[in-house]
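Chain A, query sequence.
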Amino acid sequence: MTVRGCLLFALTAFLLHAQTQCPPTPAFSLCEIAFELDDKEAAQHPEPYLTVQLQAEFRSPRKRTFLMPAYWDGGRRLVIRFAPTEAGDWDYRLTSNIARWNGAIGNFTATGSNHPGFIRPANVHHWAYGGNGKPHLWMGDTNYRFAEMDRDLFERFVAERAKQKFNHMRGLVIGASSEAVARAVPSPDRPNPEWFREVDQRVQFMNRNGVTYDLIMAGDQNQLVKLFPTWQQRERFVRYLVARYAAMDITWQGVQEFEEYADGRAVLKEIGLLLRKLDPYQHPRSTHTLATSSPLLPDGWMTHVIYQSSDVQLGAIERQLYTAPFVNAEFAYEDSGAGKSHPHHVDPDTFRRRLWNATMNGQYPTFGNTGTYGGRAFQQDARYLDSPGAKAMTAWFDFFSRTRYWELEPYFDVDGGRAVALDEVEYIVYVEKPSGPVEVLTARHSYQVYWFNPITGEFTKQRDWKGERFVGEPPNRTQDWVLHLSRDGRKESMLRSYRFESRTVPVQEIETNPQRVPFEIAEPSAAELSLSKPVAYAAKLKRETRATRSMMYLWTGEVVADGQ
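Chain A, predicted structure.
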């Protein structure tokens, strides 16, 4: 045996003696390597969360590298949690300020699995799985108290939502109640390992049921900064969350309502850039908001925009401005009997209409029911799981599963409704309040014609149609309907293609020539605006065109607040 071989054998044997090893691990499953400080090391590091540094650089069979930090798991124990992304032999090397671990190497074998991989942004405004490259139809639920509610009730919630085809669940990793938060983070320098072990198990239960966890780090009203007042404390906590949860199916959803934070933009930027640096899987990153998180896009850390808004103008117009996916986390919460405490807590009929209008904006939806979402004013009750709104969400999912949803974009050559389309392939028109014929301009082909009932999930098939200008009415005018013009055979043949997208996604170009803009700003007419009274806004059409039959306006401004 060569000297190099002897050294490698000795080092590997030393490492095997030093900590646990991973058995053969399926791709996208958890490999955990545990470490224990000895008496001398523990005396030197009485607070391992604060002072012990440990990370592993993993190298894949295709020579890709993933740098994963360890997390403190109580007492003298630290853990590196990793998920291999492909089958084959993986190597890793440790770096640490514990001399016994620093420079040690190891390896394990990953086996094949049917896991689709972690989700990532794809095709500008959409989502795909990183493992198999297939599209992902994001449909979320809200459960702020998932970490603190009764375990059996939690598992019932997740199982039922998975059965209803939800594939995301958003919730607060430190809990929603003040009692839960105090248990999770008793000190800014010492998170509670027992709390987070329970969260680990709950997130893994979500993942086993096909549900991605949308991780919210802290609540509104400056909570994260109050819990972790210094940047160093926040950095350690973010590193801790990455180490515990990045190897799972998650997305990062920042904090609740970042606008309520003092200097919230700067706080989110420091956290977001740290996530971008530390998370080796680059899980999607954004933050919850009072309206839209889009103003944070220029800071360079967000991968998608989150909304809390049912404003059609805001969603529709921002879709034309930004090249990122959009998720609407709170266009409405359904009140199916539990009660309401906010204006956006609405009846099931209003909820369904807002769901489909958000979809026509090009947004992926997240559900909430006042009896299940875990708000401050409501108890969570399983009897609200099978609500009309949840059924409407399932119907929504089933409908779009029939489409090339990962290529749909808002479409405007329509009267009588709002539309998304993949031009020349399919056109989907939401008719919220039927009052007459619906008109759609299409590419000249033969189409199958369906009217979809968003309440029941039922389809009404009509005669095939061929032409360039479809005109038709829904089965009745007593409810909302969805028109689907579809080249079913064409879509089947496209699915056999290896290409994810069939066309380049059109990106809106801002018109800068005033002569070509069909409107002019009438108000405000003054050069200066007063903050002491409301500002009047008005636009005046200069000429009538097909495009001006239905106009939307979004007025934006930059306001300096809290030093931002």
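DSSP finds 13 helices and 28 strands in the chain. The first helix runs from residue 3 to 18.
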